[in-house]
Amino acid sequence: MARGANPAWLLAAVAALVLAAGLSLAFGARVTSLSELVSALSSPPDTMGEVAVASRVPRTVLAALAGAALGLTGAVMQGVTRNPLADPGILGVNAGAALAVVIGLASFGLGSLTGYILAATLGAALSAVGVYAIASLGAGGATPLKLALAGAALTAALTSLTTAVVLPRGDIAGLVQSWLVGGVGGATWERITPVLPFLAVGAGLSLASARKLNLLALGDDTAAGLGETVWRARAVAALGAVMLCGAVTAVCGPIGFVGLVVPHLSRLVTGVDYRLILPASALSGAMLLMLADVGGRIVARPAELDVGIVTAFIGAPVFIWIVRRKRVAAL
């Protein structure tokens, strides 16, 4: 644990995470009792209620993994770019990953989840590089405002290209349209297992970059003066974020705003030390996405809203709040 860290918030976050997981297992089209919940988790399911709980386990795990990865990705991107508006959705990374997967489906007949992951990671990486290159043009370099504008412009362009690829392909349109909404429904262990190595490596690189992100927060000149190789620190951290984002997008579709909202909420609790922000963002992201998934099941019962729609409802007002803050340009 980082020096000066207060373990109280960590214990509270873990307790809240366990509570969110319990809600995710208990609520759905069929509400299950506590006894059915305990029985389903401790022995093979027999009743309809226990079967319902057992079917929600992989969905809950996928929501937790995806939320943790997106929260971590947002925190790393904000640290790498020193931009409080950085988020895989706003910076075009999600859109790039989605376009790459759609092109792979339409042109190369992608059929395996590993192929989805590789395509999404490549698309996410190219988009991240493209946004940073565009924002770096002109005087002043890649300022927070230029990054946000470049990301918004590239997101619009890539989304239009995705639509243009899908429209003439009626054979894949239904699959792609439901995937583009972003959700964790239909999760199975067969879908989760292939992404675990990518998530593990991405999380490892991201968490290992915490100290370097603290140095980058002091400014490039100061970080270089303290012995840090700035370009290498940014590249390693960005690689971890891109791997996380690519893996989540491949299995869940593009889910926005989690990476934007969670790091800001985490900073309110932990302060500005990335050694605390990163694990706090992972825990908070997992909790937020599980609760958003539960909310989508309850609001539209007996049908359900995909979690990507729910996070958009949550994220939009938070985004406006962040933009209106006086210190938006200073991270």
List the helices and strands and how they pair.
Layout: H1 7-26, H2 34-42, H3 48-81, H4 93-108, H5 113-136, H6 144-166, H7 170-181, H8 189-192, H9 196-208, H10 210-216, H11 220-225, H12 230-252, H13 258-270, H14 274-299, H15 307-324
Helix pairs in contact: 1-3, 1-14, 2-3, 3-9, 3-12, 3-13, 3-14, 4-5, 4-6, 4-12, 5-6, 5-12, 9-12, 10-14, 13-14, 13-15, 14-15
Globally, the shape reads globular
Tally the helices. Answer: 15
Q: Unreliable runs, pLDDT <50, ≥5 residues? A: none
The profile of the biggest β sheet is: none
Write up what this structure looks like.
The protein has helices at about 5-25, 35-40, 50-80, 95-110, 115-135, 145-165, 170-180, 190, 195-210, 210-215, 220-225, 230-250, 260-270, 275-300, 305-325. The chain is mostly helical and about 325 residues long. Helix 3 (about 50-80) packs antiparallel against helix 12, helix 4 packs across helix 12 (about 230-250) and helix 5 packs across helix 6 (about 145-165). The chain is globular and about 65 Å long. The model has no long low-confidence stretch (mean pLDDT about 85).
